[in-house]
Design a protein that fits this description.
With about 160 residues, this protein is mostly helical. Helix content is about 75%, strand content about 10%. The strands form two sheets. It has a two-stranded antiparallel ribbon. Strands 3-4 form a two-stranded antiparallel ribbon. The N terminus is likely disordered.
Length: about 160
């Protein structure tokens, strides 16, 4: 008889845990989604501030060009690569290293320019998606509030 009672008690506790986990899972998923969206929104707002001058050139920043902040203009990766190769072949002065350009210097700067082109494109896309991200966040927050208020509101 004691086995039946203890088995029933354990089964009841296990059932409560399963039900609690099932009801809590959507809340965790929503809070994870909210935190993820808040992170993306924060990144988009930071990009909007730090890349403010470059944003006016977003139509050209498609991964084949990059924003050259020093001159406030967009440069083509292909043209830039040719210029770097010419500097290395001619042995022009490299102000960063304070010596003539080498092939290694040109390759390093070329890799940086390619990375910057991808980063500029991503920044433009992120800032362009900011209004949609804010709408999604607002909808998720309203849904989370309704989920939290819904069960307690029905018990009254």
């Amino acid at each position: 008889m004691a086995r039946i009672v203890s088995g029933t008690a354990l089964g009841g506790v296990f059932g409560v845990l399963v039900l609690t986990a099932n009801f809590a899972t959507p809340l965790w998923a929503q809070s994870d989604g909210i935190a993820d969206l808040q992170g993306k929104i924060s990144a988009a707002q930071a990009a909007k501030q730090t890349f403010a001058k470059g944003l006016s050139h977003c139509s050209e920043l498609n991964g084949t060009n990059f924003y050259f902040a020093v001159r406030d203009r967009v440069l083509s990766l292909d043209d830039y690569h040719r210029s770097l190769e010419s500097l290395a072949m001619a042995g022009g002065f490299n102000p960063d290293t304070k010596r003539p350009w080498t092939k290694a210097d040109a390759d390093t700067r070329w890799a940086q320019a390619q990375q910057q082109a991808h980063q500029d494109k991503a920044s433009c896309e992120l800032v362009a998606n900011l209004p949609d991200l804010q709408k999604k966040l607002q909808a998720l927050q309203q849904q989370a509030a309704a989920t939290q208020n819904g069960p307690s509101g029905s018990n009254k």
